[in-house]
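Quick one, T. Sequence first:
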Amino acid sequence: MAASLMEALDASAIKHKVNLSGVTPMERRMVSVFEELSFEVGASGAYLPLSDWMLGFGEALGGSATITDFSMKSIDEGRRVQLTLKLALYRPLRSEEKK
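Structure tokens:
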């Protein structure tokens, strides 16, 4: 799942002219009847392309992806911004995993 997430984020970043700087797997936990897989994602670029990139996550990653936290800061004297976000993916648990 992590490899397909990185591939989808990379393809989407290229499409939006965003520089994807890293994808780091975080903790895994059970939430109700789902497994939550969290990732920290870093990217940089111009503000509007970065915003469009984030808005396109539903298309690029499907409806199971949620941004749980993000921060942006100006770099390069305001010409570009650095984005760090936490992304959670939800996968339904199989019946044997719910026990």
